[in-house]
Amino acid sequence: MPVRDGGSGGGHGDGRHGDGDGGDALVVLRDVDKHFGALHVLRSINLTVGRGEVVVVIGPSGGGKSTLCRAINRLETIDSGEIFIDGRPLPAEGRELAALRADVGMVFQSFNLFAHKTVLENVTLGQVKVRKKDKKTADGRARQLLDRVGVASQADKYPAQLSGGQQQRVAIARALAMDPKVMLFDEPTSALDPEMINEVLEVMQQLARDGMTMVVVTHEMGFARSAANRVVFMADGRIVEQTTPDQFFSNPSSDRAKDFLSKILHH
Amino acid sequence: MFDFLEGYDLLGAFWVTVQLTVISAIGSLIWGTLLAAMRVSPVPLMRGFGTAYVNVVRNIPLTVIIVFTSLGLFQTLGVSMGAKDFTTINFRLAVLGLIAYTAAFVCEAVRSGINTVPVGQVEAARAIGLDFPQVLRLIVLPQAFRSVVGPLANVLIALTKNTTVAAAIGVGEAALLMREMIENEAQLILISVIFAVGFICLTLPTGLLLGRLSKKVAVKR
Ligand SMILES: Nc1ncnc2c1ncn2[C@@H]1O[C@H](COP(=O)(O)OP(=O)(O)O)[C@@H](O)[C@H]1O
Ligand SMILES: [Mg+2]
């Protein structure tokens, strides 16, 4: 698969923000609203992510980026609106919801590897308990994924024995082991020491090249420019603008985005 | 000096204490864990039951519970726990009472352990598609237990001593024998010391063993 050309109109990402059900839309949010008490965190969000598309979500802290991510696999409920994954509405509860979550990989800022399980067990658990694979098949797949993210030699250690960068790469392998249709990343490099950020970004970049559908909350502009088809700028619970990475970073249209960029660029 | 011990089945009585303790411990660990699961479950009815159970049972003296199993369950309602002779019936009723009572404390210990598990662990588990029972069984409870081995050791030690209440309904464990010996023999202090040492022999290893286990299984974060 060719490297995405972030500068030429966002590949196949554009022109599909419309009604969402048609074409090859994988994730569709329609008029999604969410409050935390009096706080209106998501304000009529409409967003469509096409199959194979990489969308970077960027914006000031508290703008609702995490809530948006978490709503997509229903770790957070929504007040109104609809969310579709691969054409099916998000189930409310129970077994169906669990099944859907298995199709949506999630990578957290704080890694959240299962602390009482080894690296290998972290990556096999879902395969065995959710995908019902036998132990041997799951082990093989886990080792292959750990190799892919460059931590194969750590398979028998516990998460606490690994560096942050290694833990996050294991977390990516754990999510990939479910063969998800889409991967959500919520500030995957924000908790990392600077020297470990690149090892994680490289894994994500490779994933993007391999055609994975990704929604990535990040402030890493290098990643956005090289891997994203589209940048979604969120502030105060709204999608303020969405455009190609080049367009966004060099010539944002909203004042809110200009203001935000001037702050993150000047430090 | 120990002539007065003749004719008393000291080991036999302590053996009953051990049996009461071990069976009740297993039962209350299971029942207490189920109660803790109820208390954190998403079903309001289960949460309500768990909370009510703990708050009621924890606040009733054990003696009252044990006596109730005999007077209420057996003599009034005719619950004989599948046994025919009184010794077995009373033993089983005592175990039932001890489990019912101790489970409330196990539940609270396990629940405090559940509270030490970071919410991110649960979210990661849900995110890979585990359902609620799986999240609890595979992720939350294993980590919770590791953090409460110490508190659970205290519950087990208390249970060992609480088995003496079974004497109230005539179960022939250590305390019943002690009462009998005190009535019939003159060496009161010596008798007390013997039984005290007996109980320490039972509880001290529990504490030491579980203390060591607690360090060994602690979850590193
Ligand atoms: N569980 C919660 N309860 C109450 N308020 C919350 C909760 N989670 C997030 N918030 C609030 O919602 C707003 C959006 O949060 P978040 O989605 O985390 O933003 P971002 O990821 O863009 O920083 C913030 O003001 C935050 O304080
Ligand atoms: Mg956030």
UniProtKB/TrEMBL annotation, chain B:
Chief subcellular location: membrane
One Pfam family recorded for the sequence: BPD_transp_1
Keyword Transport set for record: yes
SUPFAM superfamilies for the chain: MetI-like
InterPro entries cross-referenced by the UniProt entry: AA_ABC_transptr_permease_3TM (IPR010065), ArtM/GltK/GlnP/TcyL/YhdX-like (IPR043429), MetI-like (IPR000515), MetI-like_sf (IPR035906)
Domain (ABC transmembrane type-1) ranges: 14-206
Membrane topology (UniProt): Multi-pass membrane protein
Keywords recorded for this protein, A-Z: Amino-acid transport, Cell membrane, Membrane, Transmembrane, Transmembrane helix, Transport
Compartment annotation: Cell membrane
Transmembrane segments: 12-38, 59-77, 89-107, 188-211
Family: Belongs to the binding-protein-dependent transport system permease family. HisMQ subfamily.
NCBIfam families per the UniProt record, alphabetical: HEQRo_perm_3TM (TIGR01726)
Protein's name according to its UniProt entry: Amino acid ABC transporter permease
Source species: Streptomyces lateritius
